């Protein structure tokens, strides 16, 4: 995983986050890698509301230093895990709300952007790869695949717009 902000860090700099969930909503292992990358650059992470024992640890020696660093790491790990759990809880509640609204017929999702769909079809139809089409259209690879598949399905059944055959037998006639 590449973190552009971290690449620019200089030793001695401090990364300040308003809240711990602004640092990462990644799973704990990946969030720890992010924090380790910050530390590897010689920078520090500061989050208001999370006790920072790093200055005390630097001023200490021996067992006290080891204990303070261990407690600091533990506090950070606990905070990162709580942030991740909160993120997952909110996503789950959102999914439940969407499911409830769908079952009641009140949720249909975002309306498709016809211009973007036309651009995807033109790029992909012009020979661009899926990844290249996604990059040029500014959309995800999965959206390109979905739009292209829908387009191919329409082409396959002979979709011609207004007045198009509604069934395969209507399309095929007495063939």
UniProtKB/TrEMBL annotation:
GO biological process, one term: DNA integration
Classification via PROSITE patterns: RECOMBINASES_2 (PS00398), RECOMBINASES_3 (PS51736)
Cross-referenced InterPro entries: Recombinase_CS (IPR006118), Resolv_N (IPR006119), Resolvase-like_N_sf (IPR036162), Resolvase_HTH_dom (IPR006120)
Residue ranges of domain Resolvase/invertase-type recombinase catalytic in the record: 1-97
Keyword DNA repair set for record: no
Extent of the signal sequence: none
GO molecular function: DNA binding; DNA strand exchange activity
Family: Belongs to the site-specific recombinase resolvase family.
Name of the protein in question: Stability/partitioning determinant
Annotated source species: Pseudomonas syringae pv. persicae
Taxonomy of the source species: Bacteria, Pseudomonadati, Pseudomonadota, Gammaproteobacteria, Pseudomonadales
